[in-house]
Amino acid sequence: MSELSIRLGIQQRVLPDYRAVFFETLGQHAPRGLAVFGGKPLPQEGIKPLSELRGVQLFWGKNFHLYNPNHPLFLCWQKDLSSWLNCWRPQALIVEANPRLLSNRKAIQKVHKRGGIVLGWGLGAPVLEGAFSQLRRRERLAYLNNLDGIIAYSQRGADQYCGLGIPKERVFVAVNAALPKPSAPPYHRPLPVTNQFQVLFVGRLQQRKRVDLLIRACAALPKEMKPLLMIVGDGPARQDLERIALEIFPSTLFLGDQRGEALDQTFKQADLFVLPGSGGLAVQQAMAYALPVIVAEGDGTQEDLVNSKNGWVIPSDDLNALQNALHQALSDIRRLRQMGLESYRIVAEEVNVENMAETFIAAIEKIKILTGII
């Protein structure tokens, strides 16, 4: 992997624990130093913040939120961001590509005034609708135009930034990853002894994950095709989900919050991984276990992970589409095993934190050349 030639700082509104591997990997290739700044999430977000970073400076600020991140009028100010910049003095700064983080505007100005470069890092720029959408579009474009470059989570996100007029040579795609390349060869699954396959979900049990749809879709399958459904995780929706499962699909196991060896064994028992709702980087973990996957359309990050060779991408909140995908998946076990091997190849060769870090380094070095200011 390439080495980063300048001191780097990364700002985020929140610092989830799953980002630790990426930050540490990037830090290993930043000999002049990497520091990360962020605040704590709102309690209702259900995000577990990271606790420490090895080889990376970690700075905590205090977030002041107006409303929640899903509200059209959401705003955030991060106290101590300016003080951190004065202390760390990064030559390159990566900020969230989100104009609603008001303190970032001053941070961008500060780094530019010192002769540094600033890149945004974001999901994309989907069409804004509803209250104050015209004002929000104007503010978003003004904010993005102040950046020297943008790193998108997905190709869809990159296309959206380019669609706003951001020059293509200043937009980069670092597919969102949470895990390094697998260190072991793909797990070999024998063909099942019985006709009952095992379907797995891993994630926090909250409404937006739509585990209820997964239970209903399994219940609607033909009798000879009904799987054993394993649900790993905990959260506020668990009680309701257990009630639904008891009523319509008793072949559902709620395994709670698993980690380590217990989770390893659960992944190995499964034949298929399903992510029926939003979010969920556990899909990459499943793919590292050579599992085929069914995922719902979301922000575009799933499209760079899943294709017809390793799984199914289905419309969000579509019970019939989920049921049909399950029916196709469970009708041919040999095809399912081949799709699992393709999943493994994707995370081994394409979507992993090493490749993600390499893209960040390449983006910074290219923006240095394009701006000519470092």
What order do the helices and strands come in, and which of them pair?
Elements: E1 8-14, H1 20-27, E2 34-39, E3 57-60, E4 62-66, E5 75-79, H2 81-88, E6 92-96, H3 103-113, E7 117-122, H4 133-145, E8 149-152, H5 155-163, E9 171-173, E10 198-202, H6 211-219, E11 228-232, H7 238-248, E12 252-256, H8 260-269, E13 272-275, H9 282-288, E14 293-296, E15 311-314, H10 319-330, H11 333-349, H12 353-371
Spatially, the strands of the biggest sheet line up as 3-2-1-6-7-8-9
Mean pLDDT: 93
Q: Please, how many helices?
A: 12
CATH class of the largest domain: Alpha Beta
How far is it from the N-terminal to the C-terminal residue, by CA? 22 Å
- Anisotropy-based shape: globular
| Strand residues, percent | 15-25%
What is the CATH-assigned architecture of the largest domain?
A: 3-Layer(aba) Sandwich
Helix content: 25-40%
Would you identify the regions where 5 or more consecutive residues have pLDDT less than 50?
A: none
Give the full name of the CATH homologous superfamily of the largest domain.
Glycogen Phosphorylase B
| Rg, Å, rounded | 22 Å
CATH topology of the largest domain: Rossmann fold
Q: Helix- and strand-based class?
A: alpha/beta
Order of helices and strands: EHEEEEHEHEHEHEEHEHEHEHEEHHH
Oligomer: single chain
- Count of individual beta strands: 15
Biggest sheet details? 7 strands, parallel
